[in-house]
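ok so I'm stuck.
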Amino acid sequence: MKNILVAVFLVIVCIFFYAGMTAASTLLYGSLHQFNGTLDSLANIEEASIRDSVINIFWNELKNDQKIPFVIDDSVAFLYKGSANSVSWAGDFSGWNPSVTAYKGKKVGLTNIWRVVASFPINARLDYKIVVNNNWILDPANPHQQWSGFGPNSELRMPEWIIPIETIRRPDVPRGSFSSNINIYSVPLAYSTNYRVYTPAGYDSLQNLPVVYVTDGHEYADDRLGSMLIVLDNLIADNLIEPVVVVFIDPRQPSNLSNNRRAEQYTMNENFASFVADELVPQIDANYKTNPNPEKRAILGTSLGGINSAYFGITRPDKFRCIAIQSPAFHHKPQIYSLYSDSTTLPLSVFMSTGVIHDTESAARQMKQIMENKEYPLKYIEVNEGHSWGNWRALLDDMLIYFFGETTSIKRSENVQPDKSFFQLNNYPNPFNPATSICFFLPESQRVTLEVFNVLGQKIISMINNEYLSSGFHSVNFNGGGKSSGIYYYRLSNLNEFQSGKMLYVN
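replied:
not stuck anymore, here's the structure
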């Protein structure tokens, strides 16, 4: 009887101790080494009843605080709890290869928790799945997901990765119109293709609009994948880009959507280029209020679609002079390099981006060097991400602002000058309780807006609402009192661009 009472007492003590300890989660541990040391200590408690009790508390606290995977600084502990013979992690970081030894899990002590430790850039965002007994599953303890063309993946968010709030639907933003499928028969392709058209809010009162043609249009338009409709609505509403028409071209066979023809269409296919430039463009220009100038017409694509965009630029500059390339799979058609290096410099403007974690960085860098040697206007971005829609959707605002960020008479009168840039946006302290100061520096006097959002993208408060501020340093106090603990995002914007930051309120 005495032993039972002692065991019960120890369970109660451990429960209260570890419940209080784990509630602090990230703030408690100064390093991943300390976190793993705590987990190892709990996992090796010999008394099974005590061990199970404190491990369950420890696990539930981590899960409730959305701390699985456990991330601190540039380190991460991938964790899985369950009976298994083998557990491994596969994702952007492993080239989606579950056999990579570095990501094969090991049991922690006497528990059924499996763990892998890794390091990534502090602002990385990566897709992954857990492979349990050779079965691929989503991480059951991680609520964050990013969809791919094959369904959802779990999402690893490193500490300094910032949610692209322009991809989050805001209820106060007017929506543009999105047509149903429109079918067009192509003579050079000898088959029909579907496309859909986005027109911006207030389209009836607009005219002379730029046009973006988007390959893999059914995925770019999907809110779970490219989120491009949301990005367009938000950027246009915030006056960050001029209103545009966007044509989303669907590569799938209309009568059999399982037949995706992108591999043949996007790999330097002269017939596909003729279809878009000589058949689809005239139809769009005839039916919509577009600007027919090729300098106001963009082609956008990712992966194989990135090859296509580059090919359009070098072969059809008569129709397309804004060339948007995301994670280009140039290794499938290396001839594209010589087409650019051997030609004269054409009147193109180029946006190109790539991830650097098992993405296309070597191919993109090779083309970047060629384009710089040829003195093409080029905006080039590398991000610590993989070959993923999470990568591509977050850079759509950069692309759209690069091509169409100069406000025009469509939105403003000719005598209004664009506002200048701002920089050095941050907040201190961070984490904070109850208040923090959001600080920024304006090199020129200008109108700015400062807003705070929760993790769902819902606006909490407008701290500065289109106010004219003088040049110099500014500081605005944000008080978290009465709000839930967690991550909040702040965004400073003017008429041409925005910057955002992340802050943690600990109640």
